[in-house]
Every structure is written in C-alpha cells, then in structure tokens.
User: Fold this.
Amino acid sequence: MLESQRERVPLNDGGELDTALAFLSFARSCVLKKVGGLDEEQLRRRLVVSDTTLLGLVQHLADAERYWFGYTLAGDPRYADVDFGMLVAPDRCADQVIADYRAAIAESDAHIRAADGLDVRTSHPVADEPLTLRWVLAHMTSETVRHAGHADILRELIDGVTGR
Assistant:
C-alpha cells in the first residue's frame, strides 16, 4: 500500500536543542496529521480492546505535554494531577480536543524556550530526582512517537490512509 501521508524526517542538525525540537515537532505533526479530515464519529471510533481512539490519543498527549513541560519542568501546579486518560467526555467535541493539544504544544514550546538550556533541572523531581530538560525532551519525543504509531494503525483501520 502506498503511503499517502509521507513526510520527510527533519534534517535539522544545527545543535542539540534545534535537533531535539525538530524531532518532537515532527512527531507532533504526525499525530495531528492522523486526525485531519476525519469526522467526530471516526475520531471516537474504538477499534481495539483498550479505550484507545484517535481522539483519546490526542487528549492524552495534551495532558502529557502539560504535565511534563508545564508541571515537571516549569513547576505550574495546575498540571500536577492531569488524568492522562484516553476516554474523551461526550460533551467535548473533537475540535476542542485538537485545539487543546495545539495550545498545549504552544505552551510547552514556550517553557522549553524559556529554559536556560538543556541542562536546566526540572522544578519537580522524576523518580525522586530532578532531571534535565534534555531528558524531558527525549521522554516526550519517545511518548509522542509511540502514540503516533498507534495513530498510524488506527487511521489505517478507519480509512486506509497510511504514512508518517
């Protein structure tokens, strides 16, 4: 099957932060591409035994962005207890969930750019130890890429669209 959504991986190599942000941005755009052009029913369609749906993945990733960059890195207490759940409330429309993810990305990018380099330590510990922004970037990139893979499979099952 042809990849109808193929996108080239970033070739940014201008420094550690530039490269890290390019790959995180690429992974985020892959997730957003997977939800593009689908209707509310398709985005909420449950195709696996777990509660994972395309819309649920987007909600989960918005929570993860806010937890890791907002709370853990920057110390914003509003995001200390995010749910990370995949079940989207019926009264929350898809456009709201997707817009919220875009907003969470913008907030995260602002926290990253406000930090004083990749060696800055998190405001809140991870496993009892403050870690670096470098680690948080790597962690969120791996999480986003993992869920982009889930989204690839779900999207293909919905309408046959493939590619990263």
About this structure: The first helix runs from residue 16 to 35.
